[in-house]
């Protein structure tokens, strides 16, 4: 198990900034995901760690030693790519053995290690099959076993599941996490899939414009976003536009509705325009009887859409404070219909006022 530190990594391609003085620490045995949209720099950072790319400046420190001067084959890192990159003329066993053969390990040692790892990834019965005889998910398991065969200090995965169908993707990500925990290997995982990152990581680094916007546990990232970019990229958010009515009491007027922002660090002048954010699960609705009025603490809305998502249904609403989304039990949603009047309540304790993300000076690339 190794520690990895990325220090002030900067990488440009002409006038385009890929990494903008990126800093990131990965603890020994930790699973960290770099999550962000296409073009945020996450793949560039991973390739620099692997030794396939070089930064303009900065350092990659593994166990206290800067490895930037070392070629990729001397860094002892395992890499799993988005494409399976298996040798088509080799069996699963031979593919897994390849790195050990390059290192001139004995035949017995190679065969034993390959057998152990193929068993670990659930492919003990497919050792003699060629890649063309394996499904996409099976090929990626072989690629994972091959990267682990050399007993790397660090495991690097570059969107390894994006080419697979949804069900296989879920199964394989759970396998990746199980194997990582079993081996205790320090892992850096790159993905643009927020569900993937939140479900398997110890910590998530949300990236934008070549920088880490926020680093934290999945719960911290989802429940406590620090910038508008993180809030909007991870999960779904409602945005409310308001005006500060009281700076001391943190009262904000959103149209006819007044709310108190729970964040004690909320400091804005009276009359200042602010943006508040709240997730759909923190918006409650109740069906209003014909001619009925909302109870105290509620305001009226109209249903504009119903999107079935399994156990919950996402309800689109038209209200006096703007369009909102609310997640409600699908059993409750059976009683709703388009244009139905509903009473709406915001969970005020979940309201957040977030700063805009700093803008990049130039368009980033990944």
Describe the model.
The chain has helices at about 40-50, 90-100, 105-120, 135-150, 165-185, 195-200, 220-225, 230-235, 330-335, and strands at about 5-15, 15-25, 30-35, 55-60, 65, 75-80, 155-160, 185-190, 205-210, 210-215, 240-245, 250-255, 255-260, 275-280, 285, 300-310, 310-320, 320-330, 340-345, 350-355. The protein is elongated, with a radius of gyration of 25 Å. Helix content is about 25%, strand content about 35%. By secondary structure, it is α+β, with helices and mostly antiparallel strands. The longest helix has 18 residues, at about 165-185. The strands form four sheets. A six-stranded mixed sheet has the order 6-7-8-3-9-10, sandwiched between helices. It has a five-stranded antiparallel sheet with strand order 13-12-11-14-20, with no helix packed on it. α5 links the parallel β7 (about 155-160) and β8 (about 185-190). Residues about 360-365 have low confidence and may be disordered. It contains nine helices and 20 strands. The protein starts with a strand and ends in a 13-residue tail after the last strand.
